[in-house]
Q: What sequence folds into this?
């Protein structure tokens, strides 16, 4: 079954990992994957580092996931940064040769000092349209969405219109950027549905594990908000040991997952950051492990 086909029946459970740098061994990540498989996730995705020190390694990891002796699907992220059509086709054919037919089609972050993507496509919608044109229905295509608006978009309305373009270019479902503001997410979900975005919604969950990481990810990179209850948690436990903070953060994450589940979303996608412990603990506390 494909991911959208599973979503027709029930909420999916998935994890995201990233490729280690080229001079680091893959074995520790493979051990993490082995632990994640124990909860039978529907899929595990691997990020794509365009031009970074881990370029190309995502394929090795996706192959390992796809070829592992269990039903977990591999989903490969792919960005159009620096990519020309011929190279995109070559990489996509390589995916198909290895049985990988689920792709998260992204533009990617424009490297500092660059103007545009230096590739044949400037936006994810163009990449999605191209993949559909070249490969028909051979791929399931996911697209990214930011419930608090993509940081480069001038307005929500503009960003939602661009999301609609991605869907209409051929995306099958969407996965969201981290969003701790569930109330804001509800309003956004309502908005995109009214704007004709009907595809399934897979919610990206960034566990609250470390106060500095939360602050950096929200304010330093993505322009995401820290809602009052999370701000209060951080203030109340600001001077706690990392271990204590992690405990309260996991409790907070579990409650947030419950709130998302109550919205009738189609999937939960945990940003597991190449570690199994916290993701498994949260899944267990949320009652997700024995769901099949
Ligand atoms: P787009 O959909 O192209 O949108 C980018 C910006 O352009 C938005 O502001 C949008 O409103 C605007 N826009 C879109 N279309 C148009 C148009 N036609 N005209 C004018 N403006 C337009 N990055 C990586 O490098 N590797 C990864 O593996 C990776 N994985 C990710 C996984 C998830 C779930 C998410 C949410 C993000 C991920 N990213 C990854 C980050 C992502 O690449 C960045 O958020 C990037 O800045 C935007 O990518 P996009 O696909 O959303 O781009």
A:
């Amino acid at each position: 079954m494909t991911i959208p086909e599973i979503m027709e029946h029930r909420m999916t459970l998935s994890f995201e990992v990233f490729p280690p740098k080229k001079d680091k061994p893959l074995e520790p990540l493979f051990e993490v994957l082995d632990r994640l498989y124990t909860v039978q996730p529907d899929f595990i995705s691997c990020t794509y580092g365009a031009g970074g020190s881990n370029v190309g390694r995502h394929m090795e990891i996706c192959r390992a996931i796809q070829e592992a002796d269990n039903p977990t699907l591999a989903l490969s992220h792919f960005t159009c940064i620096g990519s020309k059509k011929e190279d995109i086709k070559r990489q996509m054919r390589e995916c198909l040769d290895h049985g990988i037919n689920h792709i998260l089609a992204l533009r990617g972050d424009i490297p500092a000092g660059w103007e545009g993507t230096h590739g044949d496509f400037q936006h994810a919608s163009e990449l999605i349209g191209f993949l559909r044109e070249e490969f028909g229905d051979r791929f399931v295509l996911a697209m990214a969405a930011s419930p608090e608006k993509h940081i480069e978009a001038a307005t929500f309305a503009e960003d939602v219109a661009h999301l609609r373009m991605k869907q209409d270019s051929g995306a099958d479902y969407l996965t969201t950027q981290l969003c701790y503001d569930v109330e804001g997410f509800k309003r956004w979900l309502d908005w995109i549905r009214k704007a004709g975005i009907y595809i399934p919604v897979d919610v990206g969950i960034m566990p609250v594990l470390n106060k500095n990481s939360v602050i950096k990810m929200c304010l330093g990179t993505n322009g995401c908000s820290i809602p009052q209850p999370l701000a209060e948690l951080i203030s109340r436990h600001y001077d706690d040991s990392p271990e204590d903070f992690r405990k309260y953060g996991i409790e907070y994450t579990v409650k947030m997952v419950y709130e998302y589940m109550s919205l009738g979303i189609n999937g939960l996608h945990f940003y597991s950051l190449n570690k199994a412990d916290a993701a498994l603990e949260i899944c267990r506390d949320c009652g997700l492990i024995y769901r099949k």
In short: Residues 83 and 239 are 46 Å apart (CA to CA).
